[in-house]
Every structure is written in C-alpha cells, then in structure tokens.
Write a structure and sequence with these properties.
It is globular and about 50 Å long. Strand 12 and strand 13 form a beta hairpin. The N terminus is likely disordered. The chain starts with a strand and ends with a strand. It is mostly beta strands and 198 residues long. A seven-stranded antiparallel beta sheet has the order 2-3-6-5-4-7-8, with no helix packed on it. It is built from no helices and 16 strands.
Length: 198
C-alpha cells in the first residue's frame, strides 16, 4: 500500500502578480480529511462575477516545472458556492513542497492564474488508515472489510454525495455509471478510498 505524506492546510495565502480576475478566487487547499493515496482535494469559489473561469482545471507544479497533480475538468465554471476539486497525484509529493498551483480554463488551453504554494512539514500527517474494500474495481457490489460500525458516504469524484451506507453492509453500485468514486467515512480515523466501477 502506498503512503502519501502531506501537510494539513487551511486557507492558503496565495501571491500572484497583477492577476485582477484571480483576486476574486478563494481557495482552500489541501484538505487532508478528503485525501486518498492518489488524490489531492481543494475547494474553490469566486467572490466576483467578472470572470467565470470557463471549464476550470487545477494543476500542481513542482520547482522543476513537473506536473505533480492535475484535475480532470468537471465544471463549466467557478461560481459563488464552494466547489470541490480533486487532483490526481501523478508524481510523489515530498515535503516540504514548494511549487505553483495553476488554474487553467478551456480544458487546459488557457492559463488563468498562478499561485505560489508552500506545503511545510509542520502538521504533517501520514495517510495509511484506508478503508479496506473488495473487489476493486468491480461492477456490482463492494464489501467493506474490518469495520463493524459507522457510516460512509458514496461520492463522485467532484464531491457529490450519492448515498450513505452502513459499514456492516455490502454496497450495491450496479446503478452507477462507469467511473471513479470515493467511499468517505463520516467519522473516525479512516481516510477516504477511491474505487472504480466498470
């Protein structure tokens, strides 16, 4: 099982040069409570209407200009309400991390904003307490292993809750479209786990 180390951060004060349209963005990165071994989560909303950031996608770039995490575009724009953005981790993230968070538009054909980003080792968490489930991938049922009580939320990759399930039951996913999903504990020490529906 891979382990990913990352700092738990609240609102990150970003700095950018004369990015008037980008000044209206409020970004919270990176929420460890919704971090799987290969996914990084952030939330974003836009306090102004001067720019909707059409078809937005976030990228995390390290100091050597390598893309270490990238989002699959799921939104038409960024509005007033918080949106959850999941970035697939493409390269190991070593701490302390210094790099750039980029916001692209138009399915990555227009760079809108760049933000300096530092993730320090303070508050570092180790992610290894994952939900054990099988089979994964699957096309009909998922069985949760080693957890006898508690609830889990079945969510889409963009954070939409599909339904809540109990730990001691099988999870019927036959009605879901093919794709990637999260099983997210509503409480306790376990971290979310991504699964694939064929």
């Amino acid at each position: 099982m891979k382990k990913l180390l990352i700092a738990l951060l609240g609102f990150i004060p970003f700095s950018g040069s004369t990015q008037t349209n980008c000044d209206s963005l409020v970004i919270n990165c990176c929420d460890a409570s919704l971090l799987a071994e290969d996914t990084l989560m952030l939330t974003a909303h836009n306090d102004a209407t001067m720019e909707i950031f059409s078809y937005p996608g976030f990228r995390l770039i390290d100091g050597s200009s390598t893309i270490v995490a990238e989002e699959t575009v799921n939104y038409f724009g960024i509005g007033f309400s918080d949106q959850t953005h999941y970035l697939d981790v493409l390269q190991p993230i070593s701490l302390p991390f210094t790099g750039t968070l980029e916001l692209w538009g138009g399915f990555y054909d227009t760079l809108y904003c760049t933000f300096n980003l530092t993730i320090s080792t303070s508050g570092m968490l180790e992610f290894k307490n994952e939900i054990q489930m099988y089979p994964n991938p699957t096309n009909d049922f998922i069985f949760i292993e080693g957890v006898n009580e508690g609830e889990f939320q079945l969510t889409t990759m963009d954070g939409k809750v599909i339904r809540t399930v109990n730990a001691n039951q099988s999870v019927n996913i036959q009605d879901l479209p093919s794709g990637s999903y999260f099983l997210v504990p509503t409480s306790g020490p376990l971290n979310p786990t991504k699964f694939i529906k064929h």
